[in-house]
Design a protein that fits this description.
- The chain has 413 residues and is mostly helical.
- The protein has helices at residues 2-39, 41-48, 71-87, 95-115, 119-143, 151-175, 180-186, 189-201, 207-211, 215-230, 240-246, 251-271, 284-303, 314-334, 340-368, 371-404; strands at 50-51, 54-55.
- Helix content is 74%, strand content 1%.
- A two-stranded antiparallel ribbon has the order 1-2.
- The longest helix is centred in the N-terminal third of the chain and has 38 residues, at 2-39.
- The radius of gyration is 23 Å and the shape is globular.
Length: 413
């Protein structure tokens, strides 16, 4: 009996590690294309704007600027995912069909952007990337309910790792001399890995195992219902109007995170491409790519920091990120910094603030919001984050055009 129990325990641990590993890789693969498109945004627009006499620009522009802002790539990369997250919960949960669409959309998107000859085809490819990432996120996160609860944390870690690995791998390949097209074609291996991990590494639970409710669970459920009845604060939100009335109590989480993400992505997609050091060891496009890498490293470190230290003053991070917008806007207009390393340091700090705001916001919700209301609180706050990023895309485009009409300044003091 002891040998059988030991074997069962070891088998269970092995299965758990398979699931945790699978979810980390799935998180990495799911967000990989999204990050790559943002990192490659300047390259995509610049390469497809090439005419017989060089890059096509607006005749009113007085400095080296693409005709189209990278904010357009941001919008194409975030708005479709936002729509998917709204409608996917109401669609049938056929996991294999959904994941087939996730993988196929990812493959087609990379091929479209790689072989695009005009900007609109590339933007359509980015839209498909967004649809793939959005459908993959809502599907695989929902699927975690059938696994150990720690799969959620490994998924989150994998998505954070995607920011670093995707931006770093693309930037490294471009720095090594590979073209945008070749770099994107190499990345076709990512959706292939995603499909293999989902089919062969992840241990899919049997339906009867997942839908059998034990007497103990029923007892706990009844006990929870009694507790909810006794404690009005723990009553679940019922109906649209009740949920709507509850939203103002979440403003202390929603508004700071919304502002942090607007500020963060206005900097990334509105100012990064306009901050250019002429005598640097990196050319203009490479500088943009490595700003993205540095930003993602900061995010990854901050998102992994909540077990080491916590920040309860969410508004403080919004204020600091607002100061960053001011500093980066001055840099984009006047080119004040004498060294690119100062900009890299500020970019790393900006990424730290973004990641810190994200992880501490949701950590506070998990601590402070009653369990019966927590799912709604997390959902609406996560939506505000995505809405902030989309808003930044709309702000970045006119900001880009306005600054490009200002004559190029002299670098430094």
């Amino acid at each position: 009996m002891s040998e059988t129990a030991s074997y069962t325990s070891n088998s269970s641990k092995k299965g758990l590690w398979r699931d945790l590993s699978a979810y980390w890789i799935l998180g990495l693969c799911n967000n990989f294309g999204y990050v790559v498109m943002l990192t490659a945004a300047h390259d995509i627009i610049h390469d497809l704007s090439e005419g017989e006499n060089g890059p096509q620009t607006d005749p009113d522009f007085k400095r080296e600027c693409n005709k189209l802002s990278t904010g357009a790539i941001l919008l194409a990369d975030i708005v479709p995912a936002l729509c998917v997250k709204l409608f996917a919960p109401f669609l049938p949960f056929f996991i294999y069909i959904r994941m087939t669409f996730v993988v196929l959309l990812s493959i087609v998107s990379l091929l479209l952007v790689a072989y695009a000859k005009v900007v609109w085809i590339a933007l359509f490819g980015v839209i498909l990337t967004s649809l793939s990432a959005g459908l993959g996120e809502v599907t695989l996160l929902s699927y975690t309910s059938r696994f150990n609860k720690n799969t959620v944390s490994t998924w989150s870690s994998g998505t954070g790792g995607a920011g670093v690995f995707a931006s770093l791998s693309y930037s490294t390949m471009r720095q090594a001399g590979l073209s945008t097209k070749t770099s994107l074609l190499i990345m076709l291996c990512v959706p292939v890995v995603q499909s293999l991990v989902f089919i062969f590494l992840l241990k899919h639970p049997s339906s009867d195992k997942n839908y059998t409710i034990s007497l103990e669970k029923i007892k706990n459920l009844n006990q929870s219902t009694e507790d909810i009845t006794e404690n009005d604060a723990n009553k679940p939100l019922i109906g649209f109007s009740e949920k709507l009335r509850y939203i103002p109590s979440l403003f202390k989480y929603i508004i700071p995170l919304f502002l942090v993400n607007i500020f963060e992505y206005v900097i990334n997609q509105g100012f990064f491409e306009l901050i250019y050091f002429e005598n640097s060891f990196l050319d203009h496009k490479a500088q943009y790519r490595w700003y993205q890498v540095t930003h993602n490293v900061g995010i990854f470190i901050a998102r992994s920091s909540v077990n080491l230290f916590r920040v309860r003053w969410l508004w403080l991070m919004a204020i600091f990120q607002g100061i960053d917008v001011l500093l980066f806007s001055l840099e984009a207009v006047f080119w004040l910094s004498p060294s690119i390393w100062i900009v890299f340091a500020l970019t790393f700090w900006e990424g730290l603030l973004g990641g810190c705001a994200y992880v501490n916001t949701f950590y506070r919700i998990s601590e402070e919001v009653p369990a019966a209301k927590r799912i709604f609180a997390i959902s609406i706050t996560a939506f505000s984050k995505t809405a902030g990023i989309a808003s930044a895309g709309w702000i970045a485009m006119p900001t880009h055009n306005a600054i490009c009409k200002i004559p190029t300044p002299n670098r430094g003091f």
